[in-house]
Write a structure and sequence with these properties.
This protein is of the alpha/beta class and about 450 residues long. The protein contains 15 helices and 17 strands. It has helices spanning about 5-15, 50-60, 70-90, 105-115, 135-145, 165-175, 200, 210-215, 230-245, 250-265, 270-290, 310-320, 345-355, 380, 420-430, and strands at about 65-70, 95-100, 115-120, 150-155, 180-185, 205-210, 220-225, 295, 300-305, 330, 335, 375, 385-390, 405, 410-415, 420, 435-440. The strands form five sheets. Strands 1-7-6-5-4-2-3 form a seven-stranded mixed β-sheet, sandwiched between helices. It has a four-stranded antiparallel β-sheet with strand order 8-9-11-10. Strands 12-16 form a two-stranded antiparallel ribbon. The chain is globular, with a radius of gyration of 23 Å.
């Protein structure tokens, strides 16, 4: 498979031209491959050459219309919400989205810009961060709403590695004629499992993938995918949607990494088929030592640390002493993200270090749970009113004036326009949140 972006940049670099164009480093040192939209380099938001060819290569691998982003899945989330707004307008309706409460903050900022109404789906059970969307619960929520929403928006996989039943949710959306949008930031590789678990293959209309999270792509590299069966407005306006929210100076280093990933992905199913059994073996071996894991995402090992007698932050510190750096840790969880690049040696090292940690009595303390938010102001309204910063411990009864106030990693305890209640204040204390931005009292 050709890598047209990489090929162009290599040829240009070898010319050793006098660079009287951006960037200011002029290609010196390690930055020779960092260029701008010179003649022949194409344009990300109006591609007709090498970028267009590279995106078509990616689209052939994913089996759908695929567009590049150099600004992460947050860029794709904003584009998806905007496209949902265009779809709603074509139907003569305002934008109304039914969304899982564990949405990333970029979704809420996008809802603000689109002036969307958001109805929240709350988690079942006692684990706030792991919020699988249940098809029966989603259908019940749709039927209870006074007005049918435009779209369902969920996050799957979530940060802890829990995945939702995308196929079942897609069936619900089809029954009710809703768009189905998925934040698949942590799941780009799911397409290349022996049996694809990628949202587009399971019935989503649109999804965004952070390529850099699970594939060998530079930070910021991401995809926006649109199903072949999605309404035409989504496909026709996708490029303009990305241009609306993206920088006019996309990183060519990131574009090259996306381009270079295409031939890698052509053989990724075989690579994963070889690597993932070793990950599962590591999980089982550690379970036999007394560790307890949550989540069903194959490339993520999420330890419920308190069951082993530690806080997640304690285990993260012990791993760091062995030169193993985790993705995320909080009082309850330790998140470890692995890829084939981790290798058998990396998995063995992880297993040896964790196995050497002595098991202690279970910590039975449970994290506090937020209540259901009381929406006082529309999201957009809350972000355009006078505001002030106050200590979080003094915020009860006030209205949040920032997109979210989140517990790690970016799950809203309170969302814009909601009143802060006692349960939220308890969460602030538990997760170490000390300041918040609220509507200024006049």
């Amino acid at each position: 498979m050709r890598t047209p972006i990489c090929n162009f940049v290599k040829e240009y670099t070898e010319r050793n031209a006098l660079r009287l164009h951006m960037p200011g480093h002029k290609g010196t040192g390690a930055w020779s491959g960092d260029i701008t939209e010179i003649d022949g380099a194409d344009s990300l938001y109006a591609p007709s050459g090498i970028i267009r060819e590279s995106e078509e290569n990616a689209g052939a691998l994913f089996g759908c219309k695929t567009l590049y982003s150099t600004e992460g899945s947050s860029h794709g989330i904003r584009a998806m919400v905007y496209l949902a707004a265009l779809h709603a307008k074509a139907q003569g309706k305002p934008l109304h989205i039914l969304a899982g409460r564990n949405a990333h903050g970029s979704f809420i900022s996008a809802a603000c810009m689109a002036d969307a109404t958001v109805s929240w789906l709350y988690c079942r059970g006692t684990d706030y961060l792991s919020c699988r969307a249940d098809a029966a619960a989603v259908e019940a929520a749709i039927l209870k709403l006074p007005e049918k929403p435009t779209a369902l928006y969920i996050t799957s996989p979530d940060y802890l590695g829990q995945t939702s039943d995308i196929r079942a949710l897609a069936a619900v959306c089809r029954r009710h004629n809703l768009l189905f949008l998925v934040d698949n930031a942590h799941g780009a590789y799911l397409k290349f499992l022996p049996e694809s678990r990628h949202p587009i293959d399971l019935g989503a209309d649109m999804c965004c993938d952070s390529a850099h999270k699970t594939l060998p792509v530079l930070t910021g590299g991401a995809y926006l995918h649109i199903s072949p069966s999605a309404p035409p407005v989504l496909k026709n306006e996708a490029r303009r949607a990305l241009a609306l929210f993206g920088s006019t100076s996309p990183s060519y280093l990131i574009l090259q990494s996306l381009d270079k990933a295409n031939p890698y992905l052509a053989g990724h199913t075989e690579r994963l088929a070889s690597f993932l059994p070793a990950v599962e073996k590591t999980r089982r071996n550690l379970e036999n030592r007394g560790f307890y894991f949550v989540g069903d995402e194959p490339q993520k090992l999420t330890v419920a640390a308190k069951a082993y007698g530690y806080r997640g932050t304690d285990l993260a510190r012990l791993l760091a002493e062995a030169n193993i750096i985790c993705e995320f840790a909080d009082p309850d969880f330790l998140v470890l993200m692995v890829t084939p690049e981790t290798g058998a040696e990396g998995l063995d090292h992880l297993q040896r270090v964790l196995a050497a940690v002595p098991k202690r009595p279970e910590i039975t303390e449970k994290p506090p749970l937020p209540g259901k938010g009381e929406q006082v102001l529309r999201i957009r309204e809350a972000l355009f009113v006078p505001r002030e910063d106050i200590p979080a411990e003094e915020s009860m009864g006030r209205i949040l004036a920032s997109p979210t106030l989140s517990c790690p990693p970016a799950v809203p305890i309170v969302a814009a326009g909601e009143r802060i209640d006692e349960a939220a204040v308890r969460c602030f204390a538990y997760y170490g949140i000390t300041q918040c931005t609220v509507v200024k009292e006049l």
